[in-house]
Amino acid sequence: MPPKGGNLIDILGQAVESKWLSVRRLLKGNGVSAEARGQSTVGREPQSSVVEPSPSLHDGQNRATKRSMVYGAVGFGLLMLRAAIRGIDVQGYETAHVAMEIMASALAAVVGSLAVVRYHTLKETVYLFVGSGFLGAALLDGAHAAVGSAFAASLKSSPATPLFLWSGVASRLLLSTFFVLSWLAGRSEDQGKGERVLRDRFVPVLVVTLIFVGLLLFGLVSWGPVNTPLLWWGRPIELVPAALFALALVGCWRRRAWIWGTFDHWLILVLVVGFVSQAVFLSGSQSLLDAEFHAGNLLKLVAYSLALVGVLDSLFSVRRHEKAAQEALSRVLATSERTLHDLETQRSAIDHHAIISATDRAGTITYANDLFCSISQYSRDELIGQNHRILKSSHHSDEFFAEMWATISTGSVWSGAICNRAKDGSLYWVQSTLVPLVNLEGKAEGYLGIRTDITNQKGVEESVRRTAQELERSNKELDSFAYIASHDLKEPLRGIHNYSQFVIEDSVGQLDATGRERLETIKALAKRMDDLISTLLRFSRVGRKELELSLSTMRTLVEEAIESVGVSIEESSAVVSIAHDLPDSRCDVILIRQVLQNLVANAIKYCDKEPPRVTVGWESGDRGPVYFVRDNGIGIREKDLETIFVIFKRLHARHRFGGGLGAGLTIAKKIVEKHGGQLWVESEFGVGSTFFFTLHREDFHGYRSASADPDRGRQRPGLRSHGESIS
């Protein structure tokens, strides 16, 4: 979390910091992970063996094959050398051998020193054991050279030749032992069982102890002869270091660190040469300073040289990788600077738009931007260190906040509207998004809140809600007034109509034609007024009546509507067709039947062609099926497409097309809208009209996509005429 009163950039920069820590760990490793080399990394420190970066499985297989061929070729070449010198009778000089041992001692000292330095630089166990073994071998090789010199002849407590040979075996025995220990330590480290403190203390003590004991024995003990032939081995004692070299070779091979590791590769070569030198050359030597003896000691120099090359190659490779790491670090730093700059820019933009705060896991405020301070009316010093409950209003329940905390405490993002209380007691609304701030382990350490002021929006919503409630109340009052007024007006109208009829009947012969005509007009007007009031009553009932929804077969409703206008169909010889696959619907059967009856009746009524043709069908729409009634009637001008839905508004004279009050389509539209649908018309004047209507989408059953119907838009085989038997 950022420090008290910290900037938002500190919060957003945590992501960059976590990535940077990951990069540092990667660079410290100087190469690929142990898994890439086939090793376990449980509980291990970062390995520092110099390896090739980003190896693929295919590259690893190719490299393993090539290096295995090199090891095999070296071993085979040495066997060929042994066969070549077999039987050569050559006797060397002891002085030359002493010179070679001095060279070997110097080489071993250099290799050991460099390896130990390498270990203390990057703490890889292999270097510690190998370096300690070579340092011990350097001392013993030096002692071996001293034993063979004329100066030390007076100090020898045993015959010259046995002591000379035993001291030579000692260095190889010590070195091979430490090779085995290096393999065991490496394997233990791979398994996460290595203890660095124990290694750092144990290995030097072990080396010093073994060297001290060896030198002490050389000086105090009388040694017997080394050349005690066994089968075809002239010096079988040399098989002991050979066995240890073989054990170390097999162990290191199975670790498979040699596939990518630079030093591990050279180490395998050292073990191959050391094993062949001991098992084939030195163990087969039949006499001191013979050809096999000299070849074996020369191979020891070769092995030491290979170890020196391996250590130097490792050190130089480290330098190369350090340079690459520095370049990578520079790139990361440059990227981090750009990222921080981008974050600062984004922070500035967000600060100018959003209300932002950050808290710890307990809800204590650790950061608040200027907009947060402005809307809450608290200063930043007053907010930092306070719990977010300082802003809590009584608008929300405890369950509301319990659900919010349950969401963010599990690491999920919560969004919603919250009503807060400002310092002066006023309330304000914010649309909040609360985001958990998680650490590298994925655990929430705090929360970041990003908010937008929606106080005005909430005010508008409340105003709209109150207006809607008031409008609904007013509409109910108007419906009630229309119903009551219409009902009360019908009684005097019936009186006017009836008394006009009485006067006409009782004044036969007393009134002239003009008087009778005027009374007939009064009676007709009263009848028309009664019809208008009845229509108003029906219209108001649609608004007041609760829908009685039920699953209905639309085809059945269409057939019943057609039967109700059967007289008009017979008189006009109209042809009415119904689609056989009309989708079913949940609707108010009585009201939707009234809609269909009105649309079919109008289609027949407003037609100037012989015979009238009416089609009832459906099409697929975005929100479900769209029912339609299509005719070949007189059509409607575009300017009148909305006018026809206005109550009591007719487009023609009252006596044309069978008369009427002009309320049928208005009532039909109100019924459809009460179902949550729409009613509209498409028409071409003089050609015909199509009335479409939809119902609420979730009330449909049996709906299928019209895209699967290739006959859409033309007379379908499934459409049948009214005169046919309709199943």
Give the integer mean of the pLDDT values.
Answer: 76
Write down the oligomeric state: single chain
Helix % is 55-70%
Query: CA-to-CA gap between the ends?
Result: 75 Å
Tell me how many strands there are.
14
> For the CA atoms, what is the radius of gyration?
52 Å
- Largest sheet data: 6 strands, mixed
Beta-strand percentage? 5-15%
What is the 3D shape? elongated
Strand order, sheet with most strands: 11-12-10-9-7-14
Number of helices: 19
| Structure class | alpha+beta
Give an overview of the whole structure.
With 727 residues, the chain is an alpha+beta fold. Helices cover 57% and strands 12% of the residues. The protein has helices at residues 8-12, 14-29, 57-85, 94-122, 125-148, 160-190, 196-220, 239-255, 262-281, 291-353, 370-376, 380-383, 398-408, 455-506, 513-544, 554-564, 566-572, 589-605, 664-674; strands spanning 355-360, 365-368, 414-421, 427-438, 444-453, 549-552, 575-579, 584-588, 613-621, 624-631, 679-684, 688-693, 700-701, 719-721. A 6-stranded mixed sheet has the order 11-12-10-9-7-14. A 5-stranded antiparallel sheet has the order 2-1-5-4-3, sandwiched between helices. A 3-stranded antiparallel sheet has the order 6-8-13. Helix 4 (94-122) packs antiparallel against helix 5, helix 5 runs antiparallel to helix 6 (160-190) and helix 6 packs parallel to helix 8 (239-255). The radius of gyration is 52 Å and the shape is elongated. Mean pLDDT is 76; it is low at 1-6, 22-54, 155-160 and 697-727.
